[in-house]
Amino acid sequence: MLKKTTKLMVLLLITAGLLIGCSSGEEENTNPDATTLSFWNRLPELTTHFESFIASFEEEHPDINIEMQTLGASGNQQYQTAIKNNELPDIFVTANVTSLKNLVDQELLHNLNDVVTPEVKEQFYPGVWSENLTTIGEDIYQLPLNSGKSAVLMYYNKDVLSEYGVSEGQIPTTWDELREVGKDIYEQSGGGTYGLIMGAEATWLSDMTINQMATNITPEVHPSIDVARRINYKTGQPDFVNDGSTQTIEYLKQLMDENVLSPSSIEYNEPTAIANFAAGKSAFYFDGNWAGSVLMNEEEGPGFENWGVAPMPTEDGGTYYNDMAAKEGLMVSNNTEHWEEVQTFLNYFIENGYRDVIVASGAHEPPVDIEVTDPPFEQYNKINELSNQLSVATPNIYKQNNSTIGFIQDYQGGLSYSAGSILAGYMQGEVTDPVAELEEAQQQAMEVFNENLNKYEDVSESDFVFDDWVPFEPYTTE
Fold this sequence. Notes:
Blueprint (H helix, E strand, L loop, with lengths): L1 H14 L6 E2 L11 E7 L5 H14 L3 E7 L4 H10 L6 E3 L6 H6 L12 H4 L13 E2 L2 E2 L2 E2 L7 E6 H6 L11 H14 L5 E4 L5 H12 L16 E2 L4 E2 L4 H15 L12 H9 L3 E7 L2 H6 L10 E5 L10 E2 L5 E4 L6 H23 L18 H11 E2 L4 H4 L3 H10 L5 H10 L5 H22 L23
Parallel strand pairs: 2-3, 2-4, 9-12, 14-16
Antiparallel strand pairs: 1-3, 4-15, 5-6, 7-15, 8-12, 8-13, 10-11
């Protein structure tokens, strides 16, 4: 017991680094005449490989110095302040606090047309070039870091499963199976190990989990937490109160009540939950496809290798889905005084970064076709296989009507509820009736939605209705 506790304390100390902004740990360029480019990274799972990549870049380009800062928990505030004061760094990973169009309208971004020429653009998967995510009209403003294929998955600890007699052929695929396996593990362990841990303190992660799991039951409600949050693509209206949302929230609370889901989940953010899962405190853990790279990382994570990955269980064992969209990428400040050096860095990244950062980290699938003959870890190809299965091209409201970009920005900005925050309140006992809470969320969403319909004369409810869309099938207008 002492050994397990000591291991957990060490893992928690290691993963605490995910919450703290840090600069590149590599030796800095000592050339006094070098041009310095500032670079903000808000994806901690890429930090280690960005550092080594930057070191290689500086070695080949001694006249350019890259000062990287990995943003911690205060990252959103740093972006908001930088946007307000027009002080964005030379290069930065997507500022997800506002829309791409808003940044362009404020003249804060430098377009990347000189870098992503038509010839270069052909190297990328066509689906990554999407209005208000990577492009505005014919102009490119974001160099995508990944293919846009992602999903929340279920990670399983092979050590725990082996200890309690669960084979990989018995990995749960239905809600009932997860509940039964989890209860059995809890009882066998005398309450020392749970079936499941979540990072429910990170309500955005719970929101993703609920929204995607719920598509198994109510697939017409868009699962994204970034685009068209909780909008039903058949009715064209917000839809918080539906069978998928209510049943999923009730199910997760039932897991906690029956000692399947660790009650500490409500106190765990993502890195803390990962650390406890790796330390054997649970058999299963829900997180995005990037979590595998964090589990394996000895510097930014617990350095844990003996795990597997599978789809999350659903009510009936059927599939669920997430939208396919390249939301993360590299952007450039319109105020950069070193555009030539920035181009050099971005060109170097296109040539080497997708292999040396994205693939090497194992966090994401790259947006270009790279043959991975030597995966960064054993489970990498399985994660990408599942992400490809569970990521589906959904209707693009921005393509249907460009005016919906501002509408969605204001609509989502007016929402104070999310499925993840309602689950958190329910688990803590602050919410006693989640359906009533969802109904309040629905009322607020409809009020905000209708207010913006009045505000945006060029937007109508029909812009969010796609009668020709069949959920779970890739959507195309061609």
